[in-house]
Amino acid sequence: MRITEAARRLGVSPRMLRYRESLGLLPPVRDQGSHRRFGPDELAAVSQAMELERRFDISPAELAFALRAMSEPAVAQAVRDLGVRIGRIQAPRRALDFEKEKALRLLRPR
What we know:
The protein is mostly helical. Helices cover 65% and strands 0% of the residues.
């Protein structure tokens, strides 16, 4: 189906569907160079994205960035580093730190 019909079925505007497509929130177009046709897979993907946005009170852009952070290791690492720096994520413990703590515990007087 064409974008106008898909938008009507989903209860959004065609412009919103194009915006979601530009953010990467739709499956890729099967035939490059042709206009997007909306089938059951595309409608299901948009519905799932809209449900996540409602459930977590986020925008389509925020959801698109979350997907990018999950699929691009460099982005994931940069976000993780920021989370550690601002205290939202606990820094990973290194094996040597664990061994050092274990040794210090064993050396403590009883």
